[in-house]
Give the backbone structure.
Amino acid sequence: MLEVLNLEVHYGGIAAVKGVSFNVRQGETVALIGANGAGKTSTLKAVARQLPARGSIRLSGEEINALPPHRLIRKGMALVPEGRGVFARLTVAENLAMGAYSRKDAGIHDDLAKIYALLPRLKERHKQVAGTLSGGEQQMLALGRALMGKPRLLLLDEPSMGLAPLMVQKVFETIRAVAAEGMTILLVEQNAKLALETASRGYVMESGSITLADTSANLLADPRVRQAYLGE
């Protein structure tokens, strides 16, 4: 579904992403792991067209390099950004409605009911202003908002960042539930163990380059990954 070839991202004269290539097949969850500053978020933002980049990015075989970010949701891609990025002054219900802004079909109401069933905390707080939610609730709201666009590919950027352990568990239970329904997911996550336990395959980034690529099971067993990212 997603094919990235020779992706490069520069900040001035500094190369943050150096010729990265990877793919995500339909219906699978793929993790992109690495230390802070490895280039994970820059890679994801480039795929979502939020950063200028060189190289080829294809979604379902279509080159999307020249598309502006707001066009991508109509192509089937949605990003849940690092830091969540909810509309703080809007209510939960209004945030979810914003996720469906590009849709013209009659299924929005039914999909909202599905989101509330998947994330019952949002239903409980549907009239609450988003800026007053806890970090974990905002993460769930950002995920629900993205799903309201009916994407085929979901990009998740550091969904566990800043959350208490119990809320991290709940967020990842939701991610697994979404994946089980057939959603294709590219997951950027600093918690390597959690990411690889959630994904079927993974890529390891170091200093802007992909240094390892394998099944999640093999990466979890790899001594290099265990020493560098699992604290073993």
